[in-house]
Amino acid sequence: MKRYVIPGVAIAVLLFFFLAWRGHRENEPSRPDSASEALATTNPPRDTQSVTNEPMERAKSVPAVTNPMGYEDPETIRAFNDSPDVPISFYGLVVDQDSNALQNVKVDLRISQWQPTTPLGENIKNIQVQPETGADGRFDLSGVNGHIVKVIGLSKDGYEPEVMQREYGEYGPHGGSPEKREVFRMWSTNLDQSLITGNHSFAVTPDGRHYAIDLAKGTISEGDHGDLVAWIKRPEKIGWRERYEWACELAIPTGSLCETGDSAMFRAPEAGYSNRFAFHQEADINRWGDGTGDKHFYLRLHDGQMYGRITINLFAFYNGTTPGMIRLSYAVNPSGSRILRAPVYVPSERDWKPTKLLEQLKWPPR
Q1: 86-191 adopts what CATH topology?
Q2: What distance in Å separates the CA atoms of residue 108 and residue 68, rounded to the nearest whole number?
């Protein structure tokens, strides 16, 4: 009989604690059932029209909720709450690809106004205005109050914005000055070129052997005869999280390259080229890494008969199955022109979705 007493007591004790825990859970305030619901509770969508009917004074005490403009810093939120909109002053200049002033360009501007006494969800008002550039390519904006100015579009027949962007700048209430204006560039559509382009990731052996890359075919092979020749060298065996000394080089056998910090890279320069880029990483250097990071170069190929641009990253170690990697994206103009710009696709508002945008940008590299 005794052998049944101990298990019975144990079961009774466990049942008691379970009932006590369940009663405690039932008395707790309800919580979101998922991470997405929790996020929706603490950071509601900006376009929500009616989040709460309580006055703004109560909303001030909860910065994460009183955040329809995307700010999280309490001081920034408090500054918006405590001050009215201020007079806007914006000074812009629109030029063409050769830096000449462009007349009659319609500039779409969006002004955000903050209304602290309005219920949450209704306290942001966006006003759109469309000034037009004069003969000197300039445009001004004044006579209206607000907190933020966004440049959301540039339009003129026969021209298009230099780069594809959803917005062309976000500013506070003041942008530029009469003496130093914010500059926006557009390109004539008559200058669009037919370019050879590519996005590739090539697995390589980082033991110093040379790899030749054919940009027209988008291929790589061992050797020294190609548009580009690259090599990477590091120790054969490396431990987990071990720092090691390594080096790499990129050369142009029948041409030269010119490193640049320019992100647009739409017109190759005439001078400033060299025939190779070398990179050396010491094991004990600060900010050590096993890749070069994105490097941007203008290319002069086939003894100056062709020009191009390239963004390249060379990895001494990529992962456990890929010893080294060369990742590059490029555009080459086979006509001999130094213009390296193809037609720009300017998406509509609904096209700015992650999947569609990645398709447009052809990402990830193949």
Answers
A1: Immunoglobulin-like (2.60.40)
A2: 22
